[in-house]
């Protein structure tokens, strides 16, 4: 613990001379080394100390950016020029980025200090952070359990005080689920709110970049910085970016929808009880609770895995041994080079998803699977559009269980995919969602609650979270 609650307090301590930013960064580097067994980082940037000295000088001269001195860890699917970009895959081993992702550049421009690149499921494909060429990441609350995925390293870095906050990506729950397993706030913004330029593509119509932190103030501040239109990303939105930090404190009351489909069989009883208890408190504070239905929810997992694997099959075709990345040796033909490079470079889960995606896009099955899944995606989006005509927010569990044991689900892909049952629909609909930590269960494992809002209404998520938790 660093002795400050949020970034505003940290800035005050640095300005008053009570906190040395250089020593603060040294402390984080010491903790990263001390907690190496958690395997949260793929790469640690020791030159962050030099950046700290420069930022501290900027603060003294009153010319520092909004994130001055905030120490951040970045998921290793986001590019930083001249830094490794591996996506936790052997196929990109030793590859260095030739440009910096827009979201990361915005952080750097506001004087955030990037302390390292975090471990993740290979190419962000996974719900446990076991699918990494760098090895599994361990949950800091119980080292025999997973931290969640695919942004497990980023979640653990923030949860174990190895940085002030961290950046992850969310394609089907990869920020919210590890946030739930590690006791953090984790925000998935509206699709298009944050530029994807420089984010290694997995599912291009799903991928989003967002923050992890222990407090909502820092979540709001980071979101404000990284949001906005980018000419390098045609899918980034022209929507204006609210002053999230200035507006999070309010006494607004919300109408909150509780979808019956998310509170059915399969939900851990302790998670159900904790959320029910919180809902009672929310009701007492003046917000209204309404029972709603999202009738196509049962189709979200198959729809998600058909569409994302199809997009992955297309996006990962570029890793062929010819353009960049790993290339197999001792091959007799071009075709053999393609086959061996991909066979040796990709891990088993990535191969599985590429094969599934190629199958659903193939001539005989395109209409039966891919086209039909696109139609169901529209129906799922319509469910949310209808619901948000009646309610401001929707509350659900984030995960069906708390963090599970390492290896417990890795031999059963279907069971692993079902861990995303409460999170994928948010990505299918393109709306924002946040995990709110609700303390720990009877054996000390974190419990999370998910809150969703309509497109580009992250402000309501932040206001609700800031004023109730």
Question: What does this protein structure show overall?
Answer:
The chain has 469 residues and is α/β, with parallel strands linked by helices. The chain has a domain of 241 residues: Amidase signature (AS) enzymes, CATH 3.90.1300.10. It is 38% helix and 13% strand. The chain has an eleven-stranded mixed sheet with strand order 1-3-2-4-6-5-10-11-9-7-8, with helices on both faces. The radius of gyration is 21 Å and the shape is globular.
Which features characterize this protein?
eleven-stranded mixed β-sheet, 469 residues, 13% strand, Amidase signature (AS) enzymes, alpha/beta, 16 helices, globular
User: Reading side by side through the largest sheet, how are the strands ordered?
Assistant: 1-3-2-4-6-5-10-11-9-7-8
Mean pLDDT: 97
Number of strands: 11
Structural class: alpha/beta
Name the CATH architecture of the domain at 7-247: Alpha-Beta Complex
CATH class of the domain at 7-247: Alpha Beta
**Which value, in Å, is the CA radius of gyration?**
21 Å
Order of helices and strands: HHEHEHEHEHEEHHEHEHHHHEHHEEH
In terms of DSSP E residues, the strand content is 5-15%
| Terminal CA distance | 20 Å
The CATH superfamily of the domain at 7-247 appears as: Amidase signature (AS) domain
Q: pLDDT below 50 for ≥5 consecutive residues: which ranges?
A: none
Shape by Cα distribution:
globular
In the CATH hierarchy, the third-tier topology of the domain at 7-247 is known as: Amidase signature (AS) enzymes
Helix content: 25-40%
Number of H- or I-type helical stretches = 16
């Amino acid at each position: 613990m660093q002795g400050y609650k949020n970034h505003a307090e940290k800035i005050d301590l640095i300005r008053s001379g009570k906190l040395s930013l250089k020593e603060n960064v040294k402390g984080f580097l010491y903790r990263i080394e001390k907690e190496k067994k958690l395997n949260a980082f793929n790469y640690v940037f020791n030159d962050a100390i030099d950046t700290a000295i420069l930022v501290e000088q900027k603060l003294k001269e009153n010319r520092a950016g909004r994130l001055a001195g905030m120490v951040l860890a970045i998921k290793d699917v986001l590019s930083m020029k001249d830094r490794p970009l591996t996506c936790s895959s052997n196929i990109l081993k030793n590859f260095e980025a030739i440009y910096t992702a827009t979201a990361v550049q915005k952080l750097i421009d506001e004087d955030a200090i990037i302390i390292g690149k975090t471990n993740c499921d290979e190419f962000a494909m996974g719900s446990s952070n076991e699918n990494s060429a760098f090895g599994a990441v361990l949950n800091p609350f119980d080292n025999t359990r997973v931290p969640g995925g695919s942004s497990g390293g980023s979640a653990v870095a923030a949860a174990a005080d190895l940085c002030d906050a961290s950046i992850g990506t969310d394609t089907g729950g990869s920020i919210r689920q590890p946030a739930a397993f590690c006791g953090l706030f984790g925000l998935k913004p509206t699709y298009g709110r944050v530029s994807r330029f420089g984010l290694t593509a997995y599912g291009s119509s799903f991928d989003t970049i967002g923050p992890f932190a222990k407090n909502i103030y820092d979540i709001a501040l980071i979101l404000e910085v990284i949001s906005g239109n980018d000419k390098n990303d045609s899918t980034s939105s022209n929507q204006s970016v609210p002053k999230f930090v200035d507006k999070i404190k309010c006494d607004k009351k919300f109408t909150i929808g509780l979808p019956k489909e998310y509170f059915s069989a399969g939900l851990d009883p302790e998670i159900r009880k904790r959320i029910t208890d919180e809902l009672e408190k929310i009701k007492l504070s003046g917000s209204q609770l309404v029972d709603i239905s999202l009738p196509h929810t049962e189709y979200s997992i198959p729809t998600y895995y058909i569409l994302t694997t199809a997009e992955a099959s297309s996006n990962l075709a570029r890793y062929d041994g010819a353009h960049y990345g790993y290339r197999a040796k001792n091959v007799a033909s071009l075709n053999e080079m393609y086959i061996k490079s991909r066979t040796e470079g990709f891990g088993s889960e990535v191969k599985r998803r590429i094969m599934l995606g190629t199958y659903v896009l193939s001539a005989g099955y395109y209409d039966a699977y891919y086209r039909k899944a696109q139609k169901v995606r529209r129906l799922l989006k319509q469910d949310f559009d209808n619901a948000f005509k009646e309610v401001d927010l929707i509350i659900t569990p984030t995960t069906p269980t708390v963090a599970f044991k390492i290896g417990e689900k890795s031999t059963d892909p279907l069971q692993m995919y079902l861990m995303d049952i409460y999170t994928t629909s948010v990505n299918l609909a393109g709306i924002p969602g946040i995990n709110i930590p609700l303390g720990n269960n009877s054996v000390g494992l974190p419990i999370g609650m998910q809150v969703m809002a309509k497109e580009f209404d992250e402000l309501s998520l932040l206001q609700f979270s800031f004023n109730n938790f």
